[in-house]
Amino acid sequence: MDMIKDSAFECALIEIISKGLPLVSQPYAAIAEQLDSSEAEVIDGIQRIMMRGDLKRFGVVVRHRQLGYRANGMVVWDVPDDRVKEIGHCLGQYSFVTLCYQRPRRLPDWHYNLFSMIHGQDRDAVAEQVKFVVEQCGLQGVDHQILFSRRCFKQRGASYSRGLSGNLGGRHGTVFNG
Fold it and tell me: What is the reported pTM?
């Protein structure tokens, strides 16, 4: 592909995958059909987009309430800056931690810098999982709070669009995966 075709292909690809992968046995082949392309070109395109950093993560949006998980706890942590990466990776390895990312502190009002989302069937289950990761990740004595959601908003993947600079917009902060 030449550069202009490549750019147009990647923009169309991002638009399609932003809406979610088709629920079929070969989702990349189905996307390739929509783009009049091949499955290999779709996979290569996604890899290029990710390698450039235009797409940071590629994952599943879990509709946790439909699966019976009624308690959603955003656990905010005041982690020493020199341990954020280590602790983020420790938290991110557990299947019940669905998000884990670093954000800047907003002093003096907000001193938390690491955020993790834990879903449970009830608040007690979430609290038990938090106790577990405190023990497993060496977080005894680290200030944290569990912020439970009161409502469920529409859940969807990230939306990417071209801004004035031509760069794809995305999330800010560091995301930790297990």
Answer: 0.59
CATH of 64-148 among 3.40.50.1820, 3.90.930.12, 3.30.70.3460, 3.20.20.70: 3.30.70.3460
Query: Model confidence over 13-35: pLDDT tens digits?
Result: 988 988 888 888 999 999 999 99
3-state secondary structure the chain: CCHHHHHHHHHHHHHHHHCCCCCCCCHHHHHHHHCCCCHHHHHHHHHHHHHHCCCCCCCCCCCHHHHCCCEEEEEEECCCHHHHHHHHHHHHCCCCEEEEEECCCECCCECCCEEEEEEECCHHHHHHHHHHHHHHCCCCCCCEEEEECCCCCCCCCCCCCECCCCCECCCCCEECCC
What tens digit of pLDDT does each residue of 26-82 get?
Answer: 999 999 999 999 999 999 999 999 898 887 777 666 666 666 667 889 999 999 999
